[in-house]
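Quick one: co-fold with tryptophan.
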Amino acid sequence: MGSANRGNWASRLGFILAAAGSAIGLGNIWRFPYVTGKSGGGLFYLTYTVCVIVVGLPIMVAEVLLGRATQSSPIVAFRELSSRRSPWIGVGWMGVITGFLILSYYSVVAGWTVHYVVLAVRNSFVGQSADAIGALFGELVASPGANVGYHALFMGMTVLVVLGGVSAGIERWSRILMPALFLMLIGLMAYCFFLPGFGDAAAFVFAPHTTSFDASSVLKALGQAFYSLSLGMGAMLTYGSYLSRDTGIPKSSVWVAVLDSAIATLASLVVFPITFSFGMQAEAGPGLIFKSIPIAFSQMTGGYLLSIVFFVLIVFAALTSSISLQEVVTSSFIDLFGWGRRKVCLRTGAIIFVFGVPSALLGSEGFFGAGLQKLTGKNFFDWVDYITANWMLPLGGLLIAIFTGFVLERSLREEEFRRGTTWGAVYSVWLPLLRYVVPLAVAVVFAQSSGLLKLFGIDWGS
Ligand code: TRP
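Sure, here it is.
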């Protein structure tokens, strides 16, 4: 099965860091704090953590297992494990499409972080007021030229890395960048610990109060878990396919989830103390980190250098994620059509760029920005984010869980789970979670958010 020369991770640690590199990205540092802020804090945090443990982890194990078993990209993996005409191949296709869509707007946000590197280098933060720093973000979002330009630049960087092949490149980068990001965040959190708003921030994140938490927040928590762990579209499957057959799966998956949650938590404990100390709103939305974090740097000794380092690290965190999105698209097309990596990368990268342009126009007065916003309450960017994270990823995860839990041949499933790990006994916990808890959780959340439950007279809120 699979084609030769696909490359392999050099070690188990290499896989963990690369998978963590995919998981840890803008989802942790940009998306998690602002979604938590909008959804009311503590209770959201708790719901999110439960989603990671009982829904996310079982699916991650399933994805890595399917990839390691077939040593193939998603579409081919489903074909090999079912049959040539099987509808399950559609799950692979949906994954490729979802990856395509996510990358198209992910690159826009990553472009903002590149812009913030430039601002940091130009010394635009030090000594500035909170209002002046907030205005910088407004200017960026309202400028179509800058948005499209940075989006192009970031897509170019992504394609460049994936062009060079994955294993050695990603693994080597991840080994340096992930620990560096971790240290930076710890250092920043130590600084934020002494801000007057730290206590309020910790209470906001950890105390399970119910302000602005409703049933739709559960959908968002589930969506965020899928998004942050890179689940539901075959990214972990693809990374699992570069794993040697004898490397164990469950323990590595737990590591990835723990690292991912740790970074999201740290990011919140940096963002919210600043938010509260400087009188900003936790519900500020997608601009939250861009308006808050530079304020800390503006006042800190050494803020100039640190702000550069920090935004460079976020760019790299985004890059280790975006390459996993691009890699799913790339490896699928290589396996399917037998095209060369170069041709696939350049073509798909260009198409993804073009599709991302409407998202890059989010702050404009035109149709894709203000127009759609007025009509539907969401601009194009918001729509792509909403549909992929809250609907497509959970749906993909649900189908992956059902396939692995019920369709995959029993002996193959169990043997694959147990090979290479000392945690074989966990199989009897994993399987029921995958078979019953995951489908139930996703189904209930879908029924609620599609308004189906209302038909039966059950209403949990908006
Ligand atoms: N997990 C990444 C983040 O938190 C984003 C990401 C990378 C992703 N690959 C993915 C999300 C695959 C969903 C699916 O930033």
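If it helps, Residues 22-23, 25-28, 102, 227-228, 230, 233, 235, 321, 324-325, 393 surround tryptophan (CB under 6 Å).
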